[in-house]
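User: Modeling request: complex.
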Amino acid sequence: MTAIDMWAIVAGGSIGAVARYFIGLAQATWTTWPGWTGILIANLSGCLVIGFAVGIPETRSEQTVWITAFLMTGLCGALTTMSSFALDLAILLHARAWAQLSACCILTLAIGIPLVIAGSALAKAVLGGAG
Amino acid sequence: MNGVWTLLAVAIGGGIGALLRGGAETLSPATGLEAWVIILLVNLVGCLFIGYLLVWLECRLNRNGQSRLHFHPRAYRLAGIAGLLESNPTLPPTVIAASDRRLRIESGLLMTGLLGGLTTFSSFALDVVMLIEDGRWGIAGLDAGASIIGGTLAALLGLELGLLQFGKNMEPIGE
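Assistant: Request completed. Predicted assembly structure:
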């Protein structure tokens, strides 16, 4: 990993984590939804963006730093989180909130994974000609 | 001003967490582990630490009686800590405010920032999609199951370890 890669990851990671913090804050301030929905929204956004990043035509050929290090490892990686998601599931499990536990789990997986594919298709549709 | 420090803490933690994960990903050739295995392991480690950290931070700093540990079946272990599970009227409001400030900054640095940046859902989802595209449906299912169920179990284990260590005879600070 070069120094540029490292700084790109740090920059992307900082922006991604702050964005996730603001999403959580906005969810807690402006909605009455359960607490785990903030992380859900952050995770789903990150899935769409990482799909888009993979779909950018030059990604697979040149592995440009700004896409792989900044956008994928840094920004998407820090915008999304497994630890807070798992902690939410653990808390819902302890609270015996079965409906919310299933909703959190199913919504995250069943929307998140298709969003990666959708993001990639979107990038190819929008940027396909430029590659 | 308080909000600025919290934001800075989240940004620093997120940058370091993401860099650690990026570093771990480069170990793929040296260890012979596939990329999805490394993301899985990093995520599981992060899940373990977040459970432990939650107990540590709440026991030390939560002083408004609204702990997220309230639902834990072994919350009775935490009942002796002033202001943790029930707000304590003998605590001066200034102590509660100071603890709240520290909780926001420390939890921003370590939980939202460091562990949030270290662990990732997007790379996991991308790995699952790539495994499916390669026709490795079994491995994709294994990755998904190990990440979600394993991650939750790791967080539960972290909570238990934290309770074992901090749940009894914890000296509350700042009083």
